[in-house]
Amino acid sequence: MDIKKLRKIFFSTLYLSSFTFGGGYVIVTLLKKKFVDELHWIDEKEMLNLVAIAQSSPGAIAVNGSIVVGYKICGIPGIICAVLGAIIPPFIILSAISACYTAFKNNTVIKALLLGMRSGVSAVIISVVYDMTKDVLKEKDISKIIILIASFIANYYFNVNAIFIILIVIVYGLIKAFIKARKDWEALK
């Protein structure tokens, strides 16, 4: 067990969770920047797979993202460090806000601050979409490109719930993996 890595996981997720506003998709981008781009502990393709697992699991995506990243890097101790780092800041912030809710509720400065954060959150989400789309397009796998476009159209234009899209893609992936395994099995005979 690498104590330095565990410490780095904890303080990285603590820092990211402390200064991230806008929900789980924002922290997933920052997890990617930290653990893929900066520390090189996870490769980019694997991070996309981890994000897919985090999205398809029940619960908050920030916690799920921390779980899969922590597990990938250091197993169960990594999960514990990553989750603690990810949940401590929101717990403290929400506890303080709930204690002072009536003072914040009608405060024009707080309202303006939250309104201003929307632009930053939007930019980070656009960055995530761009990075993930760029990686899919680099592979030049036509089935993945079709899934990407069909998922967007289904969700944006037809308001299909993301859960249904994820379930359909999981079934497609299982079928594709089964067919590939069967072909490999036949080739070995």
TrEMBL record:
Belongs to the chromate ion transporter (CHR) (TC 2.A.51) family. The lineage of its organism: Bacteria, Bacillati, Bacillota, Clostridia, Lachnospirales. This is Chromate transporter. The chain crosses the membrane at residues 9-28, 78-104, 110-130, 142-157. It is a multi-pass membrane protein. Pfam families: Chromate_transp (PF02417). It comes from the Bacteria. One of its GO terms (molecular function) is chromate transmembrane transporter activity. It is found in: Cell membrane. GO terms for cellular component: plasma membrane. Keywords: Cell membrane, Membrane, Transmembrane, Transmembrane helix. It comes from Lachnospira multipara.
